Amino acid sequence: MILPIVGYGNPVLRKVAQPIDKTYPELNLLIDNMFETMYNANGIGLAAPQIDLSIRLIVIDADPLKENYPEAEGFKKVFINPQIVEESGEKWVFAEGCLSLPELHEEVSRYSNVLVKYFDENFSPKEEMFSGVRARVFQHEYDHLEGKVFVDRLSPLRKTLLKRKLNDISNGKIQTNYKMKRPSTGRK
């Protein structure tokens, strides 16, 4: 089932998400719905807060980036209760977008490597190092679990210049080709 994505301005995007355990109701169905929602919106990652659930759950499928970033091929994962253990390497700038901030793309600086502990969809514990675009996509989605969005990483001047666009998103004055839950009204 395709779920509505919440837009910038919705309070759930500012909350630190809570951990879950294997008794979380209908977790496998939720994961399937998140992938379906992400694919429908042409996204490469989706965090549970973006569908109005303040839980520590991320789905990623970076395959659409493989033409320019071969390491993205096959990077399809579920992250439950992820924790960043270490960020390392050179910081690099990349134009990021977000399904919760439609039509907005900005240059964001992030570490090139990230060591992550998490549980997969079977609640098997994992610890993996991700580099390059894989690290980038993960860090972007992880920010959602920490109550952050990518514009929080921009300079104060840049955020000021984007204020009108951000207000338009917050007020639902945007058009998308996917289902959105409008922040200010709560309507779909």
Description:
Mean pLDDT is about 95; it is low at about 185-188. About 20% of the residues lie in helices and about 30% in strands. With about 190 residues, it is an alpha+beta fold. It has one domain (about 5-175): Peptide deformylase (Peptide Deformylase), CATH 3.90.45.10. The strands form two sheets. The chain has a five-stranded antiparallel β-sheet with strand order 2-3-4-5-6, with helices on both faces. It has a two-stranded parallel ribbon with strand order 1-7. A hairpin with a 5-residue loop joins strand 5 (about 100-120) and strand 6 (about 125-130). The longest helix is centred in the first third of the chain and has 14 residues, at about 25-40. It has helices at about 25-40, 130-145, 155-160, 165-170, and strands at about 5, 45, 55-60, 75-100, 100-120, 125-130, 180.
* Mean pLDDT metric: 94
Total DSSP helices: 4
Low-confidence stretches: 184-188
Question: N-to-C terminal Cα separation, in Å?
Answer: 15 Å
Number of β-strand runs: 7
Strand order of the largest sheet: 2-3-4-5-6
Give the amount of beta strand, in percent: 25-35%
Q: Which range best describes the helical content: under 10%, 10-25%, 25-40%, 40-55%, 55-70% or over 70%?
A: 10-25%
CATH superfamily: Peptide deformylase
Sheet with most strands: 5 strands, antiparallel
Radius of gyration: 16 Å
**The CATH architecture:** Alpha-Beta Complex
* Shape type: globular
Element string (H = helix, E = strand): EHEEEEEHHHE
What is the CATH topology classification name? Peptide Deformylase
* Domain unit count: 1
CATH class: Alpha Beta
Strand pairing plus helix content: what structural class?
alpha+beta
